[in-house]
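quick one, two chains, predict together pls
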Amino acid sequence: MKRVEIIKGEYYDSVTLMLVAKELKKIEGVTEATLNMATEANLHIMKAAGFEVESVNASPDDLIIGIDCPGKLYDRLMEMARSYLSSPPWKDSEEPGEYTPKTLEGALSVLPGANVALISLPGRYAAAEAMKALKRGLNVMLYSDNVSLEEEIELKRYASRNELIVMGPDCGTVVINGQGLGFSNVCPVGPVGIVSASGTGLQEVMVQLARRGIGVKHGLGTGGRDIKSAVGGISSLTAVEALTSDPEISVMVFISKPPSPEVREKIVQALRSSGKPSVTCFMGESPREDEPKLKYATGLEECATLAAALLGGKDVIKAREDLINEYLKIEALGRKSEASGRFLRGLFTGGTLCYEAESIARRYLESVYGNNPLEIGMKLPDSLKPIKNSFIDYGEDEFTQGKLHPMIDPSFRSGQLRIQSEDPSVAVVLFDVVLGYGSAPDPSADVVNAIKSLERKKGPLYVAYVCGTSGDPQNLERQTGILKEAGVHVFESNAKAAIFAAAATEGRERK
Amino acid sequence: MITLYPFERSSDWQKIESVMKVHSIYSKVINFEGDDNRRYSLITREVDYLPRASLIEALPVLRTGESVRVSQELSSVGFDPSINPVSEPANLLWQPLWSEWRRFLLDDRFECLLDQLENPERMIGLGPGTTPAGDDFVTGLITAFRWTGVEVGERFFKALEKNGTTWFSTQMIRDALNGYIWKRGYKLCQALVGSSASEFLSAVGSILQWGHLSGRAWLAGFSTGLEGIS
């Protein structure tokens, strides 16, 4: 039996809510437990999961608890939920801890030499704190989203005038001197410098470089809007300048979705002027002719391949051709594979990985829908009810208001994967698993549990890419092994996984 | 009657044998009421030292109201709870940090205390917690005054006589008025005149572990005292 309860005016952070839900789900008889702030998006998700929320009188400042359990357990479970919230069992109150400063000034007392502030606050407060940090001479990594465009422009203009950089908003990954901030993988440090308007794009290129034995010294995020006209590439250009003047950087890389034309021109010009060999990856752009010191990639793995070739003084044309040949082989394998059903569902936790996979899929499939589609007119009316070929980015705002990002808590994506897998029209399910600091401790296990609980007689073909290294806390080999053991086809790059999945689905739509 | 032999004591507990009645029992401390109506405590951890406390290896199983004999025959002095007025001022490097502690009063649970900020002696007995948060605030405030050499007004003595509060809190406030401090507070004072960030953060963290709200309220009071607002 599914029931909900509202706790008025009580805020809890997403991690606490996730952990309490996890504790409740361990109890025998509990089929589902979910705790969320009662935002519209969360109510929609709970409604889709069968909880009666229509008559609920709740605002986004209220907590809504949903439990699916036998009726006789309900009261006890609700009491346990309240008890866990007030006294989390996983916290040892006797454990000594250090005081954590609550203000910027307090933090600077402890770390007077700090030159970066990482800001992770609700959007409505983030810009003000970012400006305080800039005024104290700190660069800013702005992890927060829901910062307005006007605020972003103001912050970046101030930063630019004062020889500082604002990395963000909505910047989840930065690497400085090999040290990751936010979501990041354990990768070697080396002579490559990356500027990226894309979090998982940066992670994928770093991981691909690591697999080629190449290290990255700095990976500077700019936030996705930086490359649009309104912002004008302020942070992108500051970042390119910083990498240009660093003598330890030999090759530069720039990653983003296609920028506004005038911003693109500024970025390309800055890379040309740097005098350093560079690779751009404006994902999804049509291939362009390379310049002597500036190479144009259209995909993340290609970008890493070209950067590696430049660094090693190798033939870039051959490197590209070799990669294309690998892709052709994988495409052929995909076409030979057997699957029951007609459509491809791409279910992603990393936004850029979803974007790249979708843009690859569009080369093979007639129509591709999504919650953030590449093609206008292909937006799904309901992201919880994908149709035909669909790509869903579970890191989009509609899924993360008052909820953890799916890279931190993949349970929602896993639940959706199971639902989609039961659909007999789904032939192939393509998904990503992103490892590293900040990500879930065992993301593959989460997905495999969903796969194993499938009731459909002949399930879909599962295809995956694991973005990570063996140095990551979750360990690449272990995570890959878990998936392979469950029958998932795992590939070495996001592009390869997408090519295989799309080729395996090609032509089935018309059946 | 059981006789207990602590191995260490605070310097304000005399090296004699005395009979006391068990007042309250907790997982890490037992409080007794002496013949002088004052609180004496048995503790098992050095960090929990307070005025008139003794360290014992393990807490005995006792009942509230039971009389016990405590012999200091075998104990050495492990802690001096006297507040020594500071000879050098608090390091201003930490000022942004101690300023933060007043914000603890913005917690909804401390709302009743905010109304009494102008006359903090009225906080005695007020607020949530086993020791009312107002008592913790006042103790922190008075400790800061004692430590910085600021005169503590008669109003606190009078308010303590007049206002009802818990037996434990009364002892706690009286100790502060008489110039005594708990070890956690002592460590903080040491850290405040130093320049070690880790020592400072650790000392404050230790106070925050104190009870559910007590540590926060105490720090809020201590910070108010440091800022010189009486």
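Chain A touches chain B at residues 93-94, 96-103, 105-106, 108-111 (CB under 8 Å).
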